[in-house]
Amino acid sequence: MKQTWTLKDIKGGFYILPAMFILVMFLVIPLGLTIYYSFYRLDYLIKGNFVGLGHYKMLLTSPKILRSLGATVLVTIAATGISMILGLVLALWIDRKTGIFSYLIELIGLVPWVISMVVAGLLWKWLFNGDMGLLNGILKMLGFSPIYVVQGKQSAIIALIFVMAWRTIGYAMIMILAGLKGVDGGLIEAAKIDGASPWQSLIWIKLPLIKTQVLLSTIVLTVSNFTNNTIPKVLTSGGPNDATNVITLQQYNMSFRYYQFGESSALSVLIMLVTTLMIIAYMKVSKYKI
Amino acid sequence: MKNGTYLPKIKSHLSEVFILIIFAIVNLIPIFWGVITSLKTQSDITAYPPKIWNFELYFGHYKRVISSGFFQCVLNSAFYSVAAIFLGVITGYLAAYGFSRRNFPFKKLCFYFIVVGIPLSSGSSVLLIPNYLHMMKMGLHNHWYTLILLYTTYNLPMTIWLLIAGIRAVPQELEEAAIMDGCSQFYIVTRLIPPLIKPSIAAASLFVFIGSWNEYITSSVMINDTSLKNIQMAIYDYLGFFGQEWGPLTAAATLAIIPIVFVFTFLGKQLVSGLTAGAVKG
Question: What is the ipTM of this complex?
Fold first, then answer.
């Protein structure tokens, strides 16, 4: 189908030019540049030899990187899963409640999401502090032995998952609530009259209707947790013994501690590939139209 | 009848209040404890059992933080955020107008590009290395405008998305009537539409503000000058500088949260509606 453009149409395109200019300048070109550099040596930002897929081969066979990737996947899946499940439970519970109560829950739920990750990480680190932290203070008062959270391998991972999930439960809840508000109340009423139990109407009516919302927020949270490096950096700094050295922290250290920018460019491209897959899923699910 | 409904109602209210309290405690305890710690003397901070109310009010940590140049960083952050809001909302508004009211070549492609940008920019650490390499190459790092440009970029896709939803809700007939009355296109874009989409503009500004005020990782690699540091960098640096001194650390954290809580209390509704507008298909 051939379309003819009028002068007004062409002029209409000018409206989006400033925004597109900014996005091309600071999003597209940098991404292209990174793909280009991932094929070269770039130690201390000095361009060296062409190495082809050398960096990629090195990354995908390095036990350190693979272990870090494993930790990242574990943390991402656990944190996203916990957020989504608790978010869903809370949303179903406060659904159809109106007024100050639901508004308060929405506001309180979003507080962890609106404060900065540096501040959130720091405040939790203080609560988890070995000798003076509130957690151990309470544990001691109750007669338990204190937990040195960020010093233990397992406890550090659990703490990281906990803080990441804590940050996004409210977000998940609000996204799912928005979906539930779109569910026709008459449908639930009709099911009730037909003798459906609350569980049945939840599983066969509500859940299928909010499927899109649940999927979308799962994808957004997965991307956000997978690429989160601020919380691990502040909370555990990747320790102990690299147990919480997630992939984006690895990438950060590669660049700004060892100055191997070729390698870190390749790692960026790999992270970008994973993110892109998520985004394709996001667009498939959301069926965006203009 | 009345007696029959009265009791269960109270019971369900009680369970509501109970869950609300648990939820509030889990969500707010780090902030609550941080604020309390920041108001204690050093000896009260390390006291066991932890003192929750019976401590002596002490503002020394705040004085110490403020006298160590913290305010410069607060001002920098405010400047970066406000500039990013202006740049982002103005360019975003124009783009949103184009997308919702005009037809032009490659419109679909450009729009998909915007949609892809929403989750991509939500994790700015994906763009950390790309932006760093690019800004270094162009010599754009470590300037007063560096972070403004990047924060605008990170938040622009979401801004455009929110404003498209707003503009679409304005009936097209209104514009047609205005043109019949002899209004210019310029008048329509600059005067007629903006007041009608105030909630969307507020939501978009709020997103840009939160994104810019809270961003840490990009600024930490882009900025070296102490005079250009933003508030999150300052707090992170205190972690190394004050080490285990949790008084000044929590005082700095509290100061960083205040503006966010302030804005959030007044515009919370816009934030919630903006968030959900971003996910529900238009």
Answer: 0.87
